[in-house]
């Protein structure tokens, strides 16, 4: 190896080492910045569900909050403290019962479920309305069952053009930034174990 080649090799090695050092420094700064942001969010006890972003497609929680027909669902999500789960990157499918669907439950059921001592039962019911994935109503016709977020399966039935999930009919679908909201006409109750 000639002295010029040795010098060029050494220069390339130094450039490579300097480049890696700069990248690691930037990564450490980004990590520190992200940690500080996360700590601030945790201190406010709000989480990512409460970060405002006017530029992107609304996420599942934002769609529910913006719908006057889903105020009972939003209250239930808040009582079960599941807001942050509905804004995760997903993709998620949420089968969102309307207020009318909640009203069809036996009198006093919703009020009872919203009590702090019933938080786990409520969370289980709400998770039974969530599936990983982002499937259109049409594509759901290919399924016989779906695995829900509460680790139970829900049956899927097709009757004509209608799709029923756990006995609830999909009456509309709204795309979300992190999945899709299928609006259903019934509260889907998990099977008892």
UniProtKB/TrEMBL annotation:
SMART domains: FAS1. Residues 57-188 form the FAS1 domain. Transmembrane segments: none annotated. Gene3D superfamilies: FAS1 domain (2.30.180.10). Coiled coil: none annotated. Pfam families: Fasciclin. PROSITE patterns: FAS1. GO terms for cellular component: extracellular space. PANTHER family: FI19380P1, PERIOSTIN-RELATED. This is Uncaracterized surface protein containing fasciclin (FAS1) repeats. It comes from Flagellimonas taeanensis.
């Amino acid at each position: 190896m000639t002295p010029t080649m040795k010098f060029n090799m050494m220069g390339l090695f130094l450039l490579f080492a300097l480049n890696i050092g700069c990248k690691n420094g930037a990564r450490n700064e980004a990590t520190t910045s992200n940690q500080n942001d996360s700590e601030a969010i945790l201190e406010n006890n709000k989480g990512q569900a409460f970060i405002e972003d006017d530029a992107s497609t609304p996420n599942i929680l934002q769609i529910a909050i913006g719908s006057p027909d889903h105020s009972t669902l939003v209250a239930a999500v808040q009582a079960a403290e599941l807001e942050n789960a509905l804004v995760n990157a997903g993709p998620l499918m949420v089968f969102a019962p309307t207020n009318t669907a909640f009203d069809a439950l036996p009198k006093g059921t919703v009020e009872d479920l919203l009590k702090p001592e019933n938080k786990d039962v409520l969370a289980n019911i709400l998770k039974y309305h969530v599936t990983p994935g982002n499937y259109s109503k049409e594509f759901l016709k290919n399924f016989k069952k779906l695995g829900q977020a509460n680790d139970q399966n829900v049956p899927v039935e097709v009757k004509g053009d209608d799709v029923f999930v756990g006995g609830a009919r999909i009456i509309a679908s709204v795309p979300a930034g992190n999945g899709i909201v299928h609006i259903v006409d019934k509260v889907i109750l998990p099977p008892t174990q």
